[in-house]
Amino acid sequence: MSAQNQAENIIKNDDLSAYWMPFTPNKAFKDNPRLIDRAEGLYYYTTDGRKILDGFAGLWCSNLGHGHPKITEAIQDQAAKLDYVTGFNFAHPQAFELAHIIQEQFPGQLNHVFFTNSGSEAVDTALKVALAYHRTNGEASRTRLIGRVGGYHGVGFGGISVGGMVNNRKMFGSLLSGVDHMPFPYDASKDAFSKGEATSDPLVYLKPFEEMIALHDESTIAAVIVEPMIGSNGVFLPPKGYLQALRAITKKHGILLIFDEVITAFGRLGQANGASYFGVEPDMCTFAKGVNNGAVPMGGVVVSSDIYSCFMEKSAPGIELFHGYTYSSHPLATAAGLAAQAVYKEEAVYDQVSARSPFFEEAIHSLKGEPYVEDIRNMGFAAGITIERRGDAVGARAFDVFMKCYELGVMVRSNGDNLALSPILTSDETVLETLVETVRKALRTVA
Ligand code: PMP
């Protein structure tokens, strides 16, 4: 039996339990499977022949659309030439080239790239680098890590420990010790329907951070990690001045600042990354997803020269950092990365986003007043809509809207009571309007 026939047989017989799906209500999905057969450009095509507009760029990753010919060709050529070589004690030249292209896009001293295979690994890498840095730098007492309520930093133990989404944490025991969380930097009673950055006083959210530093003493704190734009939890922007003030406080107390840029790097905000967008230079930035258009798993951390040179100058002779992955700087992921980066540049994709963001902003905010819309937030090509909860059923109505959009031929995403849009970065005004009008129709139909 061919692989295709076998797959069809399994699906026909509803024998879907062999595959335990991630972040999915498995039982419900298997009663009503949504199966994607192929994708091209802005569209997915389902196994039953439907065409679905991708309003989520895969999962914030397929920034240049699906099956981009230059990326596909680069992966094919690389597979034929060099499918794999370990990054331990060996390298392929393109790994240096990609690292160079990436670091050039981050501001100031963010000049050195460590490759991973996902955002979760990038986060855990950044946290480990922070701890190892202080130890190497003669400040081994700096071991505490600080995240934020509502933050998403992937699903590794480090990431869920500094992360602040309760469902992602509560099943998994006591997590890393010595972790604190700053408050969620958004107050819907003051900030609802703000366009771009929120409007409330940033110091309200940073005072508890300063109290944390006073309580523990700065000499015990290694690093703080934040998403410059809170993404997975529903697209929330901190108030104006928050990231700048956070930078000033961390600097004053010798605490490393990590931006988790897994979503915001490579064009989502209309600039190369959030650090550039907000004009704030952290000590490390994570990235993943858009680095190579999500075509082959890849992530990484961009590290400041201060951190890198500390390891190079002060470590004992030999391996400076006992950390790395079998697939760090994988040749296929690297080839996809070089191709994607070339397209970003040749087609001035970040500028396209920047130019069309005001249109997207107006379009998305035109949903204010539609049924169940409690709040709308946006920046660049990212938008979050809070959907009024049905009774106590967290997320049930937002999920209904998401499903209705899919029925109407558009893929978006729901998470809790939030619906999120993350258009492919080359979507034009017509596509953006189709996305928003489909959400409007879905809201009205669900009502
Ligand atoms: N950090 C952030 C900010 C993310 O948005 C994500 C994924 N959405 C991750 C980390 C985890 O990335 P991955 O799923 O590739 O492990």
From TrEMBL:
It holds the Pfam family Aminotran_3. One of its GO terms (molecular function) is pyridoxal phosphate binding. Keywords: Aminotransferase, Pyridoxal phosphate, Transferase. The keyword Transferase applies. GO terms for biological process: biotin biosynthetic process. The keyword Secreted does not apply. Belongs to the class-III pyridoxal-phosphate-dependent aminotransferase family. PANTHER family: ADENOSYLMETHIONINE-8-AMINO-7-OXONONANOATE AMINOTRANSFERASE, BETA-ALANINE--PYRUVATE AMINOTRANSFERASE. This is Aminotransferase class III-fold pyridoxal phosphate-dependent enzyme. It comes from Temperatibacter marinus.
